Amino acid sequence: MAATITPLANVDAAWLKMEDPTNLMMVTGVLMFPRPVDMDYFRALIESRLLQFDRFRQRVVRPSLPLAPHYWEFDPHFNVNAHLHRIGLPHPHDKSALQQLVSELMSTGLDFSKPLWHMHVVDGYGEGGAVIVRLHHALADGMALVGVLLALTDMNPGAPRPTPNGHLAAAEPDALAPPSPLRGSWEALQLRAAEMAGRGVGVGRRALIEGLETYLNNDRPRQLAEMTTDYAHAAGKLVLRAADNQTIFKGELGIAKRAVWSRPLPLSEVKAMRQALGVTVNDLMIAAVAGGLRRYLEGRGEEAVDFRAAVPVNLRGPHEMGGLGNKFGLVFLDLPVATVDMPRRLALVRYRMEALKNSHEAPVALDILGAIGFSAQMVQDAVVRMIGSKATAVMTNVPGPPIPLYLAGQPIERMMFWVPQSGRLGLGLSVLSYAGNIYLGIASDAGLVPDPDGILLGFYAEYDELLGMV
């Protein structure tokens, strides 16, 4: 019987075509735990939950004909053990060693002869452990992939343990109260994702980009896309926008990348600043990040100038949560890097974020990605260069679960994710909230920014300045 094949959607194919050894199109994540991860338990979760999605058992086939579409087919030799590896963290077994390991894996491409995902279970992270996840963007966008990973989690430590054949074992007696027939299922994940990542659903029926947070209301972007005049204006604005300012953050990319993340910042503390200053949590984070970037530039004898961040905007509706594939656009935020005065910088961030709320560019960018998916390589390269010239960084903000989640029987203490820097950009900035804390993650090209910890130090100084204002 002929093998089942599925052509890649144009937008998914675009991410495949943008793959380059110096700019891998992977979503990379790290989860940290207080104890070593039970490998058998973790493998059983992968088999019983992740492999319910066909994409994680399918590989991409590149057609022999030049204009034929790429397609998915089930890997006839699929073996989950080819995608799960257990490794020990080198000395000194601390955060710096884990950041180095994440950096090395972030710099290493996936095997395209197999399904496009890989996970490393890491032993020796202090007294605990970690899981490093790499997922190709052709599978789905960052929001969908984070949702898939959350489907592996439970909301309490006594959830039923999957057996080797993928079925759930009986729960511990104390885990049965309160009863939850959806616990551990994909339906439960959808509910959690809608509650945690979609806090803006139904608020004003508009495409909220409340300081970069990903909301799920899908009506407004569709309305904008259907308004021909506005759509054409947005397309022209995107194409004709001047190239971004040149800084040391832009340049020729190399293979090696660097990944770091901040200490946990209490979300209650940030919300107290928000209330005192009359801004959003995201306004505060962006202002502190922009100041940290300025300090980094000045510390290296460079002139501090404003530059743009490309911001992904989710275009999924609430009913579309749980699906794979890519469905997001981009808007461009001018970061007030050159502004030293914190109140002035905070006001600029707030003003510019307000201006983005009615941006028409997100659906335009989604259509451009779709066009890349069926274009010839030469055309695709030109479009990618054009988009990449408009920005210096990719900046994301994912409102994660507000409560601790459990994986393989123990709590996830901390987590961080990075999306790829499309357009061959060399700097990624990720803001993630989880379990009462907020984190900043930085991914950089090692040739351009070999020491992203320097940006973090500047960010901490700016954050302390914000605290001083209240």
Automatic annotation (TrEMBL):
Domain (O-acyltransferase WSD1-like N-terminal) ranges: 8-284
InterPro entries: Acyl_transf_WS/DGAT, CAT-like_dom_sf, O-acyltransferase_WSD1-like, O-acyltransferase_WSD1_C, O-acyltransferase_WSD1_N
Reaction(s) the record says it catalyses: an acyl-CoA + a 1,2-diacyl-sn-glycerol = a triacyl-sn-glycerol + CoA
Top EC class, one word: transferase
Keyword Acyltransferase belongs to the record: yes
GO cellular component: plasma membrane
BP term (GO), one: triglyceride biosynthetic process
Enzyme Commission (EC) number: 2.3.1.20
Pathway in which the depicted protein is active: Lipid metabolism; Glycerolipid metabolism; triacylglycerol biosynthesis
Domain O-acyltransferase WSD1 C-terminal: from-to ranges: 325-466
Family: Belongs to the long-chain O-acyltransferase family.
Name of the protein in its database record: diacylglycerol O-acyltransferase
